[in-house]
Amino acid sequence: MRHLIRIAAGVALTGIVAVFLMSRSDAGRARTLPPPVTDEASGTATPEVAVLAGGCFWGVQGVFQHVAGVTSAVSGYAGGSAANAHYDEVETGATGHAESVRITFDPRHISFGRILQIYFSVAHDPTELNYQGPDRGTQYRSTIFPTTKEQANVARAYIAQLDREHAFPVPIVTTVEPGRAFYPAEAYHQDFLARNPANPYIVVNDLPKLKELRNLFPDLYQATPALVAATQ
Length: 232
Prior knowledge:
This protein is an alpha+beta fold. It has 7 helices and 8 strands; from the N terminus they run αβαβαβαβββαββαα. Helix 5 (149-164) links the parallel strand 6 and strand 7 (175-176). The two termini are 32 Å apart. The strands form 2 sheets. The chain has a 6-stranded mixed beta sheet with strand order 7-6-1-3-2-8, covered by helices on one side. It has a two-stranded antiparallel ribbon with strand order 4-5. It has helices spanning 15-24, 57-64, 87-90, 112-123, 149-164, 192-195, 200-216, and strands at 48-54, 70-78, 98-105, 131-132, 135-136, 142-145, 175-176, 182-184.
């Protein structure tokens, strides 16, 4: 589904479109999941980067901006080439990109495994193949873009663990795609949730995720988000 459904150029959705979004929302599906059995070694002072895709990047970015230990969360595109890493092309679903978020975090405070636990528990539904809620297409797929071999191993092991433990009623469809570059999205997509909390799409699909993050991970929730604008 094209991004126009989410809101074109920041125009608020009303009436039947808002009702449609409400009926198709994936909000409220958060669940308590076990932490990964396999995780990275104890963190060092060196910042680490994770790139995750799970539907519209507005909500994924918004969730991780409120995770303690995360110093930056940038919306963008991964899985395709630099030449067409632009919203108007990515939204066609023909470029190979997925709407993604580049998460920079302090391993002394949060591990990659815990990042994944939040990703699978709160940020999106990993059982929806090439869609999330009202958004349709491969650009909304559930994908982990590991930045190291160790991240790839942890991700694959955690997916296998959750499937083995039947954490979800159906198998996880999340893919692991190493070796893919990340390209930041346009400025108007950055900090979208924080800048537009009354946007109907945000209200229906993403604000519930922040509540679920606070409820399920109170030790990792930070009230003040790590905004892109604050680092510019």
